[in-house]
Amino acid sequence: MKKVTSVKKLSKKKQKELNSKNRRGWGEVSPVTRVVENKKRYNRKRKARIETDDFTYEPFLF
Fold this sequence. Notes:
Layout: H1 12-22
């Protein structure tokens, strides 16, 4: 029969092994931190903002 010892009484190395076994993976979630891009800062790679207005100025010819 195996003796049961508390995790606190195990050596640091054994505690680390047990903790790593009990941990789960990230799964589908990416652990990389995502940062929202600052819209005020100039970015050469960002596509130029195209303003589309339905109103176009054309002089009236009668």
